Amino acid sequence: MSIILRPGIFNIHRSMSSMAGVVESTIRSKLLSTLDAKHLDVINESYMHNVPKGAETHFKVVVVSDKFDGLPLIKRHRLVNDILKEELQTGVHALSIVAKTPQQWESSDKVIESSPNCKGGFGK
Amino acid sequence: MNSLLRRSIFPIYNNSLKITCRSFAEVPVKEKIDKIVKNNKVVVFMKGVPEAPRCGFSNAVVQIMRMHAVPYDSHDVLSDESIRQGIKDYSNWPTIPQVFINGEFVGGCDIMLQMHQSGELIEELKKVGIKSALLTAEESKKKEESK
Hints:
The complex is a heterodimer of chains A (124) and B (147). Chain A has helices at residues 2-5, 7-16, 22-35, 73-83, 85-89, 102-107, and strands at residues 39-44, 58-64, 94-100. Chain A is an alpha+beta fold and 124 residues long. Chain A has a single domain (2-107), classed as BolA-like (GMP Synthetase, Chain A, domain 3), CATH 3.30.300.90. Chain A has a three-stranded mixed beta sheet. The two termini of chain A are 24 Å apart. Chain B is α+β, with helices and mostly antiparallel strands. Chain B has one domain: 3-Layer(aba) Sandwich (Glutaredoxin). Chain B is built from seven helices and six strands. Chain B has helices at residues 2-24, 26-39, 56-67, 81-91, 109-118, 120-127, 133-146; strands at residues 42-46, 48-49, 52-53, 73-76, 98-101, 104-107. A four-stranded mixed beta sheet of chain B has the order 4-1-5-6, sandwiched between helices. A two-stranded antiparallel sheet of chain B has the order 2-3. The longest helix of chain B has 23 residues, at 2-24. Chain A: It comes from Chrysodeixis includens (Soybean looper). Chain A: This is BolA protein.
């Protein structure tokens, strides 16, 4: 929805849509710019769920940012949720978040497990 | 006389009707949730029921609770649309499941998983007087070793 209001970015989304969906790109750019992310993965997990092919409903994001420094987990998640508020209100149904500081990311194994399997409740 | 009676009664009737309507609509969802989350030390809002979760994230939370043998209240948001939206507004959190400990919102699936992995969950449960089964298991293991 939002892209229609912002024709300037529209072309960028269009050109990227062969690799990544519109929503995926928006999530990526919002998190990159707002959190100045040092590392960012935006994974579209929609295919794991009962949705049409190419859907953008279920996402997992891995964000590494200095801005998480000193923030408890819940506040980091709230920050990410807040940045993606629009997306969450207009079609993004599930958002799994891994939010780490650069130090935490460096000392971790950097392996991100995929989200648990769907149990069929979506859309019900 | 008749019209006088009607005139004086009507506004009262009208007012009480409004009050009743409101109490069935806006106010109670928040109040209802407030009551629910304070009714038990641990409360989980999820999709489906613990015996049959209808979402992988809800299932993960159920599994964590099971590992720690936590007694908790669960509420199926799929069976009540007002709670499904109401709980998101209540905690200002966009997704389900949601876990409350001692009436306070603690987090969703990701946070519970991380609290479980870091051992923080054991500490949080301890604060409200719940001893995690994982802690009990650890203690008995230590006892065995020191024998």
